[in-house]
Amino acid sequence: MAKDTGETKISDLVDRLKMSDSMVQVYRKRLINQGVIASEHRGYLSFVVPYLDEHLRGEF
């Protein structure tokens, strides 16, 4: 997700992480419950924590 700005397709994460869709969904659920990411549109994820994506990309 940090490679993208804004929303990221879940299918792109599956490809990048080389994980099964079911495993990505497990982590997706955990991160949503912890308030780190949100899924405002079906099939997409975005960071909720301010500046987290910039920090992970080394821009902050």
Domains counted in the coordinates: how many? 1
Main beta sheet strand tally, sense and closure = 3 strands, antiparallel
Structural class: alpha+beta
The gyration radius over C-alpha positions equals 11 Å
Number of strands: 3
Low-confidence stretches: none
Overview of this structure, please?
The chain has 60 residues and is of the alpha+beta class. The chain has one domain. Helices cover 45% and strands 13% of the residues. The protein has a 3-stranded antiparallel sheet. Strand 2 and strand 3 form a beta hairpin. The longest helix is centred in the middle third of the chain and has 13 residues. The protein is globular. It starts with 7 loop residues before the first strand and ends with a helix. The mean pLDDT is 90.
Question: Topology, pairings included?
Answer:
Blueprint: E1 8-9, H1 10-17, H2 21-33, E2 37-38, E3 44-47, H3 52-57
Antiparallel strand pairs: 1-3, 2-3
Compose a concise summary of this entry.
This protein has helices at residues 10-17, 21-33, 52-57, and strands at 8-9, 37-38, 44-47.
